[in-house]
Amino acid sequence: MSRVSARIAAIAESATLAVDAKAKALKAAGRPVIGFGAGEPDFPTPSYIVDAAAAATKVVANHRYSPTPGLPELRQAIVDKTKRDSNYEITVDQVLVTNGGKQAVYQAFATILDPNDEVILPSPYWTTYPEAIKLAGGKAVEIFADESQNYLVNVDQLESVRTGKTKALLFCSPSNPTGSVYSPEQVREIGQWALKNNIWIIADEIYEHLLYDGATAPSMPVIVPELADQTIILNGVAKTYAMTGWRVGWMIGPKDVIKAATNLQSHLSSNVANVSQRAAVAALSGNLDAVHEMGVAFDRRRKLIVGLLNNIPGIECPTPQGAFYVYPSVKGVLGKTIRGKVANTSAELATIILDEVEVAAVPGEAFGPSGYLRFSYATSDEDIVEGIGRIKTLLTEKN
């Protein structure tokens, strides 16, 4: 008899966290590793948010259990923020506060999926999506859009994999891992297709404020209002406010679905830590000045890393319009000899790059097909120049 259940044994480790952990371990051992693996802003949480949390630690009520769906003040702040940022009007009973965005992802699928329900999963995708679908008893049906489509799927592709078992579509814009952003026209077309076919939309909007070159990322139920009753929106403070470690996310959806997800959370984790919730209230209720300052830095780094990568023979890097990732094709490098080694896959290439020049990137296999690397540019300009420079030196050496 197996010591670990088949359900849990089938889950793959988070590739992005694994790469980040390896890079940090090497750095701790004194190696000059440059890590592009983690999807984590390198800025400190803005001081006004930290101050609010510090004050909250002295309030005895925050030392106790609080309502599972979230502090009333935070749920109202989410309602107000959703109207402000998305022009989407909701009520507090449509909001559930979760322990980070990952818990929101899991609970969304667990709440609406029955065994063998299918979820269409555009690829490249964030590593947690297929595992959360699997845990919920569903089946992920992947469709791939390569760099020629700017990694954006179209309705014809969606329709080609739709079956009688299709329950939902995962929709993430701006995208992790590619940084690609769907236009309002594309959002409308996909939303109308989902409405026509009675398909749920699970919309991950956590990168909503990280947009460049005039791009917009409208919320799908705003573009297609009739979809509101079959849409679950996932979001959180992690990326926008540099609060990855605070663990505050949320779900927005129809009242019956949010009530069911709240029942699940009541047995899973109860309330989110109250001090973190108080910090999130401060974040969402404050202005976006600090967010815009971080966005200026991310935009500068985006242009820098895209230019450097496209100067490496064999690498083709589209310019992303959102998030803080680039997703270059490295297919032109595969099969070549690099310091006596041959990388036939992007996983093998990532290993060679880490071993030979101590630069950590996540291979495309973590997000879908081989042939790509994901670099997070949520790091310093100096590390970008040094890290990509090392890779160029490695890949342009004469063997």
Automatic annotation (TrEMBL):
GO molecular function terms listed in the Swiss-Prot or TrEMBL record: pyridoxal phosphate binding; transaminase activity
Q: Recite the UniProt keywords alphabetically.
A: Aminotransferase, Pyridoxal phosphate, Transferase
Q: Note the Gene3D superfamilies from the entry.
A: Aspartate Aminotransferase, domain 1, Type I PLP-dependent aspartate aminotransferase-like (Major domain)
Task: List the SUPFAM superfamilies hit by this protein, alphabetically.
Answer: PLP-dependent transferases (SSF53383)
The Gene Ontology biological process annotation of the record reads:
amino acid metabolic process
Q: Which Pfam families match?
A: Aminotran_1_2
Among CDD domains, the record links this protein to: AAT_like
Task: Report domain Aminotransferase class I/classII large positions.
Answer: 32-391
What are the names of the required cofactors? pyridoxal 5'-phosphate
The Swiss-Prot or TrEMBL record describes its family as follows: Belongs to the class-I pyridoxal-phosphate-dependent aminotransferase family.
What's this protein's name?
Unannotated protein
Organism from which the protein derives: freshwater metagenome
